[in-house]
Amino acid sequence: MNMANQSLPSVDAGPVSRQQPKKPPAKTAEPEAIAEGYLSRRLDLKMGRKHAVILRDKLRLLEDSAAQLEDGTFVSDRTKAMLWILENEVSV
Fold it and tell me: What's the CA angle centered on 87, arms 54 and 33, to 5 degrees?
C-alpha cells in the first residue's frame, strides 16, 4: 500500500478527551526563609586537630543521648552532628 494513499484520522472524529490540569503539589510546613539571591547549601571544611577532636567528642555525646534533628532523624554522623549544632545554636 502506498503511503501517499493513506489518510490521517480526522481531528474532529471521535470523542475529545481533555485532561484536567495537574494541581501543584501542596506546600510543606517549612518556614519561608527570607533570602535573596544564591544561597549555598554545601560546606567543605578542613578542620585542625583541635576542632576535629571537639566534633568527634560532640558526636559521641549526641549518639549516646539519642539526639535527633528537628525532622526526627537520629544524629549518627558528623554531618548530622553539625546540623544538630546549627539547629540548637544558643543565641549570642
Answer: 140
